[in-house]
Amino acid sequence: MIIPILSLAALGISLGLLLGLAARFFKVEGNPLVEELEALLPGSQCGQCGYPGCTGAAQALADGSAPVTLCPPGGRAVVVALAAKLGVDADLSGVKDAVPSIADVREELCIGCTRCYKVCPTDAILGAAKHIHAVFKEACTACGSCVEVCPTEAILLRPVPPPLQSWGWVKPGAVAAANEGVLAA
Amino acid sequence: MTPIAHSPHAHAANSVSRIMATVMLALVPATLFGFWLYGWPAVYLWAVSLLAAIVGEAAMLKFQQRAVKPALLDGSGVLTAWLLALSLPPWAPWWIAVVGSLFAVIVGKQVFGGLGQNVFNPAMAARVMLLISFPLEMTTWIPPMAQLPGMLDSLAVTFGGQQLDAISSASLLGHVKTEFSRGLDLQQALSGHYAPLQALWGQRSGSLGETSALLILLGGVFLIARSIISWHAPVAMLAGVALPALLMSLIAPDHYAGPLVHLLSGGVMLGAFFIATDPVTSPNTAAGQLVFGLGCGLLTYVIRTWGAYPEGVAFAVMLMNAATPIIDRYVKPRIYGRTRKGETLVVEPAKKDVA
Amino acid sequence: MKLFKLRGGVHPEGRKASSADVTIRSLPLPPQLYVPLQQHVGAPAKPVVRVGEQVLAGQLIGAGQGNISAPVHAPTSGRVVAIGDHPSPHPSGLSAATVTIAPDGEARWFESDVPADPFALAPDDIAARVGAAGIVGLGGATFPSAVKLKLSRKSGVDTLIINGGECEPYLTCDDRIMRERAVEIVTGIRLIQLAVGAQRALVGIEDNKPEALAAMRAAAAGTDVQIRAVPAMYPMGWDKQMIQVLLGREVPAEGRSADIGVLVHNVATAWAVQQTLCLGRPLVSRIVTVSGGAVAAPCNLEVPIGTPVQALFDACGGFNTTPARLVLGGPMMGHQLTHTSVPVVKGSSGVLALTQAEIGLTRPAPCIRCATCVRACPVGLLPLEMAARIRSDDLDAAVTLGLKDCIGCGSCSYVCPSSIPLVHYFNYAKSELMAQARSKLKQEATKKLADERGARMERIAREREEAAAARKAAKAAKDAAAKAASTTEVAA
Fold it and tell me: Cα distance from B171 to chain C (closest Cα, Å)?
């Protein structure tokens, strides 16, 4: 009776010691996770998640205070990538890929104040003081930063029709399964 | 907006219920023979099995709040119960059939998630459960062409719990095993108990629908002809039993029964054509089915010869069911344009200059 | 001649008889033709006409752009009335850039130079003319033919295979064209052979078309074009299946048939090549099968490109019952038409109006792992396993199982006893993977822009700081100098 107790205790103590030592000697400096997470985020620092830029969002993701679904412009792709990195289940039901849109400057209202041009995170707005601004549709991410700063409400996010090439089949049975429970079997 | 229909805009005249119905049709000759051989108790037992499966499955589906009708109409539950009934001793009491059927459709199938999700063949799972739980009822056989009771008297056999001691007899495999334990050799054990022709036709003691090798073979050939099953698993399973039997009987004819005895007794024929071919629990590819069938046969022989049970088909099939995912993982068809390992084919320059 | 063994495949009911025995008719010109600028694989054509312009039949209206593209031509003479979006014959039914022409009914042809002897042309010249005529694979793949010709010549093709398989049920357009225009097809084949320098030319025709086989054999007599009967099965018209059955050679994954010295073209493509090189006619019309249980009088029509599908059904006596589904192409790989205003394009082999009975079961049931799909797959995939992975959103596992080798032939869905939409799962997964790749590209571009902006902002701030520091230093130096001067002054 006494021998097994002792041997198990000795085993526990020595293994615990080993673990403690390992933790000390193989300690990883800093948190590489934050950087890795930031790399997955769009990086446009748009602030739609409510955190100060993508670094702030990555920090919040790493310490678990933000859900993986925090990034509206990232859409499903980012959610899936974040969930895979963090090893959590992503609830994609609430995440909709935002309707593809771009910022549109209404020329009759634009006063050429250059505020939008200064806040655009991707340099998608071309303009100079007292000149009507224009949007590069290839660079615009529809983050909405410019909409907020425009003093004359001249900028709106205008949905763009999806091009034929980006059309895809929907998942079969998505509707039928919910209704009938047949495919769920 | 109605979703856009995807191609193909045509479908083969094929459905799950059609497959199940064809298999049941293939079982009819062997079943009728069993009825004729063992009388009304066998009919009652079969009917009780089917009824219990239908009621049990419906209740289970209701409980899971899933559509009852499509799942019942596919016929898979009925087929499971039918196969189980064929593997029961023909005069077994009614509750054996009920417990077995309920276990098959509920624990064997619905608990896994319903049709197509179960790992083990439900009928064999139920048979094994019954064999372990009720060894006496599951090994009480009646001799063929016994004095058959009438339609009403038979009710007493199936539902009344009438003692069968007076007429019970052993199945051939059980008999051989018992005689071995008494120190007799094979010739003595077989004498008077084994006649190949009778075994082929099916006049022997045994399970309700397992005795007639010929009629089961007929059903199996019908299914192969209708492309419901492929020949791979059955042939491999029969070979898996016959080859070691041949080998061992050549080495020690006094102790080991020959291939014919093994093929024509117990549940090998039914197992090969109707159980090892169960699509849900057998491998996907022809090569995988060969491996699977061979494994079933070999294990059957091993269990029969060296195991504690006289019959091993159900155990063998269940063991191979468990191995099916791993067989499927390693035995895959070669993809066009790739090697078996999935790498792109290399074009041999010689092949190009064909004139 | 020995045929090689095939694997997989299914034998769908042919249902070809109703249209196979009717002679090809010409369709009268509709009031308007809608000619999409993209009817081929690759970059869309760029319009070279303006609204209001008069065009002649065969006149270039859209020029090909880039390496893989094809031009489009006016199907008849008339006036360009619009250049803009029109519903396209795409599975989505979405609109695409289209040139709308109001025919003048005169069918005046555009003057083009017709070579005196097309067989005297240089191979490169043949390819160039085929390219300029806007010829694409008419079997349905719509890959620009000239690109294939050039590539094949470059990689040294030894065998030209002409695909007369036509394995899709209902479709008889290739059957009819072989029966009625065999001589032209054989000329086209010999021209293609000349263009790529292939030693031999084989025509594979399914043995369920004895009349087409006989007509082609008669036309090929005396030439070195060999006609071969191949077993009727689906997907025999898959080019790689045809190569396998005739030559026993296998195209490496992700490769092209040219890699193993083979070029495959469709019979109708060979006919189009002959029309271009012998008559100077670009590809402005094609044979279309109009069939299906709901069509009153199924037949084959020679249709100007851009004709709305409705006109085809009207020409075949309309519907004798309300069709359950309209399909563009064959029933195995074609896609549903959501409306009948979409135009016939170069790749449209048939328009079908099917009844519910013809479509068959659609209600999916659980998979019973019967592996019928495994036996049917001509590629050697495990459709049931891939679909299970995709259903649980594990696309990567499906890719590992060979999703990208799937050709979408639909054999698996066709035979599935549980009516599981297997090929729908695969096409969904493929489009989902493409969407993910696109969104990843977009993200990377965004990140790059944001990084560049960040770097620029930093640089501006730094420069400003440096400028301020420089100013400060300059000021300090000046002050010091002034101070020093004043001190000197004082001292002096």
Answer: 34
CATH number at residue B148: 1.10.3430
- Structural domain boundaries enclosing C211: 17-27+114-315
**Which residues 6+ apart lie within 8 Å of A167 measured at CB?**
C90, C91, C92, C94, C431
Consecutive sets of 10 residues in chain A, 185 residues long: mean pLDDT of each?
91 94 79 80 76 82 83 77 81 66 85 84 82 82 84 86 79 56 36
Residue of A122, A126, A175 to mutate when probing chain C, most C C-beta within 10 A: A122
Cα A150 to Cα A73, A132, A154, B81, C355, distances in angstroms: 20, 13, 7, 73, 57
Number of A to B CB contacts under 8 A, please give it. Answer: 18
Chain C nearest-CA distance from B43, in A, is 29
- The per-residue pLDDT for range B72-81, each reduced to its tens digit, is 888 999 999 9
> CA of C370: which chain B residue's CA is closest?
B279
Decide if B162 is inside a domain.
Answer: yes
Assembly ipTM: 0.88
**Which residue among A169, A170, A182 places its CB closest to the CB of B70?**
A182
- C85 vs A: CB within 8 A: no
| Cβ–Cβ pairs < 8 A, chains A and C | 87
The number of domains in chain B is: 1
B340 part of a folded domain? no
Please name the member of B3, B70, B71 whose beta carbon is closest to the beta carbon of A170. B3
